[in-house]
Specification:
The chain is an all-alpha fold. Helix content is 57%, strand content 0%. The chain has two domains: 32 residues, no CATH class; 50 residues, Orthogonal Bundle (Arc Repressor Mutant). The chain has three helices and no strands. α2 crosses α3. The longest helix has 25 residues. The chain starts with 9 loop residues before the first helix and ends with a helix.
């Protein structure tokens, strides 16, 4: 079960942070973002750009959407496999 985080205002958080207090209990590390560098061939970026234009979103949104779909499918597939 996920641990419940305390809620405080941004001003309260900033004051605690500036005072050097531990603010970990107010952070959701599961929702944190990690930046990566990804090298792709030109043909792939062109294809992603075409799809992004068709969908009316950014290239990054297409990549995130497709990765999320794939990872969700893997999770479902693994659960089915484990169940028997």
């Amino acid at each position: 079960m996920a641990e419940k985080r305390k809620n405080i205002t941004a001003k309260e958080f900033e004051a605690k942070f500036d005072a050097g207090e531990d603010v970990d209990e107010y952070l959701d590390y599961e929702a944190a973002i990690r930046r990566i560098t990804l090298d792709l061939p030109v043909w792939m970026t062109k294809a992603l750009d075409r799809e992004a234009k068709r969908m009316g979103v950014s290239r990054q949104a297409v990549i995130k959407t497709w990765l999320t779909e794939r990872l969700d499918n893997l999770k479902v597939s693994r659960k089915k496999h484990a169940a028997g």
